[in-house]
């Protein structure tokens, strides 16, 4: 078996850290990689909820509708502006 230089270094480092044989370090590395636990343990991603501080009567589930309305108004404003420029050129 031929290892890439960076993989060999990682394996030798693992051998030194764990005071393991080449065979044991290689088997452990392959086992961890195939089980999906490779590398290091990453902390679990946690979302901390907090209140939005919305005023009474505002439905947060409908905020996308408000954003859509604003976007439509902006589009219409730009379209009207372009139409005026085209009319002036005629």
Summarize the structure.
This protein has 90 residues and is an all-alpha fold. It has helices at 5-18, 22-34, 63-89.
Task: Draw up the topology in text.
Layout: H1 5-18, H2 22-34, H3 63-89
Quickly list its features.
single chain, 90 residues, mainly alpha, 3 helices, elongated
Report on this model:
Among the domains are: 5-34; 60-89. Helix 1 crosses helix 2. By secondary structure, it is mostly helical. It has 3 helices and no strands. The chain has helices spanning 5-18, 22-34, 63-89.
- Total strands: 0
If helices are DSSP runs of H or I spanning 4 or more residues, what is the number of helices?
Answer: 3
Uncertain ranges: none
Report the structural category.
mainly alpha
Order of helices and strands: HHH
CA radius of gyration is 30 Å
Biggest sheet architecture? none
Shape field: elongated
Overall residue-averaged pLDDT value: 86
Distance between the termini: 77 Å
Give the % helix. 55-70%
What fraction strand? under 5%
């Amino acid at each position: 078996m031929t290892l890439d230089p960076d993989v060999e270094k990682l394996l030798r480092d693992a051998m030194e850290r764990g005071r393991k044989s080449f065979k044991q370090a290689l088997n452990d590395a392959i086992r961890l990689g195939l089980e999906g636990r490779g590398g290091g343990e990453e902390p679990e991603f946690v979302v901390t909820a907090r209140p939005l501080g919305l005023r009474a009567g505002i439905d947060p589930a409908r905020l996308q509708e408000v954003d859509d309305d604003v976007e439509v108004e902006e589009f219409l404003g730009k379209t009207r502006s372009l139409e005026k420029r085209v009319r002036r050129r005629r």
